[in-house]
Amino acid sequence: MGKNKDEIPYYMRNVPFFFLTALLAPVAVLLVLLNWDKLSTQMRNNHLTFSILMTMLYISKILPDGLFKIIFAVFTWTLILFVTYIYFGGGRKGGKS
């Protein structure tokens, strides 16, 4: 059968991966390569093909030039805020429960 859905990260499931690839195609290729062992063969082939095609659209300048800069800036700030939130305890009072 296939891999268990619990083993696959949320962002590698079909719908989140579609949106991630539409916004950040080069990052999606990297995510497929990093999660290579966790994906089933069919999902691996589908995700890799779609992310490579979307990356080719980015390379060929079909998408607007400023879009990648805007998305990269938003992603960077979100990551910084997320790491800061986790570092300061994730909003928990008194540590672990």
Number of separate helices: 4
List low-confidence stretches: none
Mean pLDDT: 79
Q: Using the alpha-carbon principal axes, give the shape.
A: flat
Could you give a quick summary of the protein structure above?
The chain is built from 4 helices and no strands. The protein is an all-alpha fold and 97 residues long.
Write the layout of secondary structure elements.
Blueprint: H1 14-23, H2 25-34, H3 41-59, H4 65-87
Helix pairs in contact: 1-2, 1-3, 2-3
Transmembrane segments: 15-36, 70-88
Keywords: Membrane, Transmembrane, Transmembrane helix
Describe this structure in words.
This protein is an all-alpha fold and 97 residues long. 11% of the residues are buried. Helix 1 packs across helix 2, helix 1 runs parallel beside helix 3 and helix 2 packs antiparallel against helix 3. It has one domain. It has four helices and no strands. It is flat, with a radius of gyration of 16 Å.
List keywords for this structure.
transmembrane; 0% strand; flat; single chain; 4 helices; transmembrane helix; 64% helix; 97 residues; mainly alpha; membrane
